[in-house]
Write a structure and sequence with these properties.
The complex is a heterodimer of chains A (229) and B (421).
Chain A (H helix, E strand, L loop, with lengths): L62 E9 L6 E9 L5 E7 L6 E8 L4 E6 L4 E3 L4 E4 L5 E4 L11 E8 L4 E9 L7 E2 L4 H11 L6 H5 L3 E2 L11
Parallel strand pairs in A: 1-10, 5-11
Antiparallel strand pairs in A: 1-2, 2-7, 2-8, 3-6, 3-9, 4-5, 4-8, 5-12, 9-10
Chain B lengths: L2 H4 L6 H8 L1 H6 L22 H4 L25 E9 L5 H19 L20 E6 L1 H7 L33 E7 L2 H15 L3 E10 L30 H7 L10 E10 L1 H4 L4 H8 L36 H4 L10 E2 L2 E5 L8 E10 L2 H14 L7 E11 L11 H4 L6
Helix pairs in contact in B: 5-7
Classes of the chains: A mainly beta (229), B alpha+beta (421).
Chain lengths: 229, 421
């Protein structure tokens, strides 16, 4: 069993005064035990916490992913969230992400379309995390989209992700799956294929979820602008 | 989120905070202009000088990690909600592990005043108010949690429904359960949020069997350490081992096995017939318990903690503390037959002709239910004048696993490692 539970939980007042409740966590350890429901996935042994498979001075070296989580879903699509922090002096760019849990992933942003609805779409050029800053992935905002789940992701599963940066360095993190009724943003263009996938995300918790997911959400009050400038 | 926030020139800081707390920031309007970091102050106040420096009880937190779970030795908070969950049929050992890891993580974050992961109302988590979350396991959970092929040795003999007592009028609605959450805080709002967050994360694996809420005096109303009164007006719980003393440790903590550092919990919902109690005069009330109502002192003493003198007799030769009194019947010559009580009052809405539907949410911790609680309850069952006005209507027994350290989870001594998954 992994020595860590999802994330190490180091309470810290570092980096930004005035945010006493803020948590700065090292990148979480890869845990094989975590992959119980993802049979056939990586068989690597646990890596120590806070490390990526990075070389010195690489983008991955200066980045940590804090408080990651992924939305539980039976099939189709899901999404992963967390805070990506760049402690380095250069901007870094996440260009791709992989996980054994999904055959395809996209980096998504949520934007307002011409009709005023908040919709999500693939982020051109990936996620840039400014030097000394961070990028929050949150429902209604930027997120990592799992396009096609290999098998159900159920609450309490732990899903491993690998971020690849523009310099080709990589960083692993593990996100626990949580039941979450939100994160039902619509797809830009919203064709039937996308809608079906979104139904898969709904997990049957809300009676009206399917119909909601199949339409755009006007106003989308829970969907802040992308916010990554 | 409003446009002006999206255009905030600051990078990194405000942007992240806005996103993290998106909805609520919008709810308080233009706060983005002054930076939203003030939202996460534990004391729930803005950054306005001395007021913010004031030590508020809402900002106090109880450490989650440790040898023992919090919420047992912790001085009782003003509010508690007990939630008993039933495991869904398909939940197996792996499912239990997933459940307990998620709930442990939620509890650890919430008790320190941080939102749980995926907390959709993160602001509500900012006032821990001494929040504790204590997990208890019913027999069914332990059975499902045992590693394949292991003997049934993990199931303590006392982990089963209590023997039937003559005074019991148990209602199924308040009995038993597979997983217990004891959620306590000095702020009922904090309890409500923690309860909802935990239940959201348990819903795919459990269903709610019952919930029971209780209260004591509000925080700050009385000197801390004051013995609770129940709704009969009695000082209730004077004789109680003091946490962290060797006496307490011996009586409460289990020494070996997967429960080492843990204990057992008895929950009894005891209905108190206040309307009938009203017909009893003050001296009758004191005779029934053997203590003065004013101070809680035994009828042979003057101060609450005076030792009762069961030999003392009245001028005409009757015991001053009657044989049938609660204090006499609760006392055993065998000092190992003691328990640690951490109960609460409840006050439900009356129905029909009632003017009250109140009682005691009796909670006790002891290393061995059969050796400590049961003999005590038998004596009370046989003869205790208080039985005239009190009726147990709910009963449950749980194993309380030990605490865990950072990175671990509550229940790992039962569910951890083992099958190598």
């Amino acid at each position: 069993m992994s020595a860590r539970l999802f994330t190490s939980r180091r309470l810290s007042s570092s980096t930004r005064p005035g945010t006493p409740g803020r948590r700065h966590l090292p990148t979480v350890a890869l845990s094989v035990a975590a992959l119980v429901a993802l049979a056939g996935c990586s068989s690597d042994d646990s890596a120590p916490s806070g490390t990526g498979s990075a070389t010195n001075g690489s983008a991955a070296d200066s980045v940590s992913v804090d408080d990651p989580w992924v939305k539980a879903a039976d099939s189709g699509m899901s999404a992963a969230f967390g805070d990506i922090t760049n402690s380095g002096s250069e901007d870094v760019t996440v260009v791709s992400v992989t996980t054994p849990a999904s055959t395809a992933l996209e980096l998504h942003e949520t934007v307002e379309n011409e009709s005023g609805s908040m919709v999500m779409r693939e982020k051109d050029g990936g996620f840039t995390v400014p030097a000394g800053g961070d990028l929050v992935l949150a429902p209604g905002g930027n997120h990592i989209m799992l396009m096609d789940l290999v098998e159900p992701v159920v609450a309490g599963d732990e899903v491993t992700f690998t971020l690849t940066f523009s310099d080709e360095s990589t960083l692993d993190f593990t996100a626990p799956a949580k039941d979450y009724a939100g994160a039902n943003e619509s797809y830009e263009g919203g064709d039937m294929e996308g809608m079906e996938g979104m139904e898969g995300m709904d997990h049957g918790d809300m009676d009206h979820g399917d119909s909601d997911a199949a339409t755009t959400t006007p106003g989308a009050t829970d969907a802040p602008d992308a916010g990554d400038e | 989120m409003s446009r002006d926030q999206a255009h905030d020139p600051g990078r990194g800081g405000p942007t992240r905070r806005q996103l993290l707390f998106g909805g609520a920031v919008a709810g308080i309007g233009a706060v983005a202009a002054i930076g939203t970091d003030t939202l996460v102050r534990r004391d729930g106040h803005g950054s306005e000088g001395s007021e913010a420096e004031q030590a508020l009880n809402g900002g106090l937190s109880v450490p989650f990690y440790g040898t023992h779970q919090a919420g047992i030795e912790t001085p009782p908070q003003a509010h508690v909600t007990l939630v008993a969950l039933d495991l869904r049929p398909e939940v197996d050992r792996d499912g239990l592990r997933r459940l307990l890891r998620i709930l442990t993580d939620d509890a650890a974050r919430l008790t320190e005043g941080s939102p749980a992961l995926a907390d959709s109302e993160p602001e509500l988590a900012q006032v821990p108010a001494r929040l504790t979350v204590t997990f208890g396991f019913g027999p069914e959970l332990v059975r499902r949690g045992m590693p394949d092929g292991s003997s049934a040795g993990a199931l303590p003999t006392w982990l089963r429904p209590l023997p039937a007592f003559g005074v019991d009028r148990l209602e199924d609605a308040w009995n038993d359960g597979d997983l217990l959450l004891q959620i306590g805080a000095d702020d009922a709002f904090t309890v409500a949020h923690a309860q909802r967050m935990l239940l959201k994360d348990a819903r795919s694996l459990t269903t709610v069997r019952w919930t029971q809420s209780g209260f004591r005096r509000a925080h700050g109303s009385e000197k801390s350490g004051t013995t609770m009164r129940n709704l009969f007006g009695q000082v209730d719980g004077t004789v109680n081992p003091a946490p962290t003393t060797p006496d307490f440790d011996d009586l409460v903590w289990i020494g070996d096995g997967w429960l080492a550092g843990g204990t057992s919990m008895v929950v009894r919902r005891i209905s108190m017939d206040l309307d009938a109690w009203d017909r009893l005069d003050r001296s009758g009330r004191e005779q029934s318990t053997g203590r003065f109502l004013s101070t809680g002192a035994p009828l042979t003493g003057t101060r609450e903690h005076d030792e009762p003198d069961f030999e003392a007799t009245t001028a005409i030769g009757f015991p001053v503390i009657p044989e049938f009194s609660h204090v006499r019947r609760a006392r055993s010559d065998d000092t190992s037959e003691r328990i640690f009580r951490r109960g609460y009052n409840y006050d439900d809405a009356p129905t029909g002709d009632q003017v009250s539907s109140s009682g005691l949410l009796f909670v006790s911790f002891q290393a061995d239910v059969d050796a400590q609680f049961v003999p005590l309850q038998r004596r009370l069952d046989e003869l205790d004048l208080l039985n005239e006005w009190t009726t147990p209507i709910g009963s449950a027994v749980f194993a309380i696993p030990p605490g865990c350290s950072e990175g671990g989870f509550v229940g790992e001594t039962l569910l951890g490692d083992g099958d190598g998954s």
